[in-house]
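Forwarding these from the shared drive since the link keeps breaking.
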Amino acid sequence: MPISENVLSELRAVLGERLSTGESERALHGASETFHRAPPPDAVAFPVDTSEVSAILKICNAHGVPVIGWGTGTSLEGHALAIHGGLVVDLMRMDRVLEIRPEDMLAVVQPGVTRAALNTELRATGLMFPIDPGANASLGGMAATRASGTTAVRYGTMRQNVLALEVVLADGRVIRTGTRAAKSSAGYDLTALMVGSEGTLGIITELTLRLYGQPEDVSAAVCAFPTLTEAVTCVAQTMQMGIPMARIEFMNPLAMRAINLELGVERYPEKPHLLVEFTGSPDSVRADAEAFGAVVAENHGEGFEWASDRDDRNRLWAARHASYTASLKLRPGATGVVTDICVPMSELPGAVAAAAADMEEAGIFGNIVGHVGDGNFHTLMLVEPGNEAEIADAKRIARRMAERALKVGGTISGEHGVGIGKLDLMRDQHGEDAIAAMQAIKRALDPNNIMNPGKLVPGVN
């Protein structure tokens, strides 16, 4: 049911012209990065502070209006689609860095601050926020989806790097979770509950984040391998040897074609590649690189190319991050069925090989990339919009990947999250009793089920 004029009037009393029902604004906030589709929301709100978010939720809760939080809109599993209509709350005008405490190595930010904007603000301090999911995502969205990315092998995910939150609950109450202390054993960990809740329990309006010192020296390298198995085996052996990597990424031949396209030059052969980065003192970087080079040689790696210059490194990682959009250009007009899984390191070579075999057998054109240092990899399967047979094949491959991950003690998603795309897999991973516990938490905090309904937790009415 569309939002009534009475409710819109109440919302306008809070927001004025920062409530939009315009077609273009609704369409922009009804789009998805991947093949997931839904009608646009009924309206879009642009709050500028916590009090406005609280007022919005009080109104929507009283009238049973669905509320969907929105950051930069870069999620991949349909997290921010208004599948039941309702109001999208765009938080990108809440974009202030509220406090930087170098002596405590933390920053306090509003949810609309992006990771790049925060790191720009931090340059003069000698500190950085390292979590890098690829897209220049908002930090509120990164917390809501428990994002990680290329540096997770060294710095962990948002779960390890969010110290405290301010959250507006479904009924408009504002709570604070966590502290500025490095650790706490006082009560339930509500911060961890909210990180990864995908907007189903409340809206994050403030984050306290852990910061790190900028490394003294950084060096990156690219190397090619004859086969996918040799490349991924090299990763597993590197991690088992304890070589401290800042990043280690796997790219299949099609992904390397996309990187060449993004760079505008045929720089790398279309073979399986690893992209790696070492950080630390110059001596430690040199020693780590030499140890890694020996593992590469054992696995028949070739074309070992160093990028110690900052601009060269930035171009390399920018091309890696752009591989999704560049890959779409390899099949003009295509959309992507994107998925990820995470498995124990010992199972990584077999999981990647099985996914590649499934794609080849089905004749699906796509790439495989991965933050493989922690057993996490992604597939992008390029399909024709509206081609139900192709989409069905791609979704079947994604399900088989998830099932294989669960069979070896892995997870259906290492970082993309659940949204609507993996909702039907949640019971497979967690079982009925654990799902019932999640449902109980959802109903306790959001009894009217207005917070991003139809996402993350199956079976909530």
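-- next protein --
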Amino acid sequence: MEKTIEESKQGESLVLENKAQNSKKLFIESYGCAMNFSDSEVVASILSDNNYNTTTILEEADLVLINTCSIRDKAEQTIRKRLEKYNAVKRDLNPKMKVGVLGCMAERLKTQFLEEEKIVDLVVGPDAYKDLPNLLAEVESGHDAINVILSKDETYGDISPVRLNSNGISAFVSITRGCDNMCTFCVVPFTRGRERSREPESIITEIQKLWDTGYKEITLLGQNVDSYLWYGGGLKKDFDNASDFAKATSVDFAQLLETVAVTFPKMRIRFSTSNPQDMHEPVLHIIAKYDNICKHIHLPVQSGSDRILKAMNRLHTREEYFTLIDKIRSIIPNCAVTQDMIAGFPTETEQDHKDTMSLMSHVKYSFGYMYAYSERPGTMAGRKMEDDVPELTKSRRLQEIVDLQREHSAFRTQEFLNQTVEVLIEKESKRSTNEWAGRTSQSIMVVFPKEHYKVGEFVNIKITDCTSGTLKGIAQGYSEMN
């Protein structure tokens, strides 16, 4: 399944086709969520037009950029180790190398990186990538450079992202930036700013370019895609002050999703991430109506305890979440639901933990992303709540959540036995050169004998066996999506 934070992709150095006229070399690594990897494609596009070709050889780079994540302490520690590596190369092998930090850590630790620790030459926040050429000019003239100003309207809708290390089949298309949901554990509203949406026509144009170059699947991407709202530009929170005409001609997520589905009937459409309080019933009916919209909703809940949900400022209760799950099951019976879960949030008791386990047992998620709570400086929880659950207790509760999810994942894959499912072939199977691997509409990986089929084709597969995370089957011919 496509992870929110896909461990195998962490730290990838990104490569694009070189331009003969470019004379400088860029080494760029990305960590964190899909949005960070998407942003790195925007950065590479901007710098490609400003004399930089990419390289995978750190030692020869003129400019080293690391796109950072602040969501977990582990991620920050990894990035600090990489910065130590870059500076060692700079000191010992390549003194002309410039080092820069992009993304969420850039905004949060700007002063520390530049002035106190002096480990980077430039710091660039998520809304300032267009300013990179100016910032690099500052660095070349011998000054440190910084721009972490958060924008009310920057969506990079006018930048055509370079597709980096892509399989040529699936691509991310950003539709919103920032977030207005002030969850107490989360840094995103502070590092990426308030929520704003991208102009619909630019989204359709980007998808058209992907379709024209052979892509078969796109994921509409945002911190909170269900809150998509275009009314001519500006922050979502300012919509109430918009003109009557702007309100009457506005486009919400259900309308955008339907437009994409109708415009590209042979392209598979995914979206991520959803928030329970913002997912409205019209979106569910659109998903059910169009076969090319994938039947998979990633619906983070974080906890099954009402008391903890309130402490997290999640803006929904356990019962409201169950009501939404029931609607999904009723309107889209074959829909997979996946989760994010935090173990050991401040003040969490054994009863709170049991409430989480019972919620999981009620929903039986297809898959989940589960973490022990990690205090993030700058968040409301970091400022006002004591991280009072012992690490051993967090680890034990997390393991119990993981074990239960493994049972539920097995239950969900077994439901597909003897069924025929549509699979988009993405790559060769990791375990056999004689098998293809691809995902179902529900985002479950399927492996099957290659026969005469090719990457990028939609194939109907009869499922004959499964593990808790993978389906196995035999091809029954091409699907109607080809």
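The chain has 15 helices and 22 strands. Residues 391-414 form the longest helix (24 residues).

- D.
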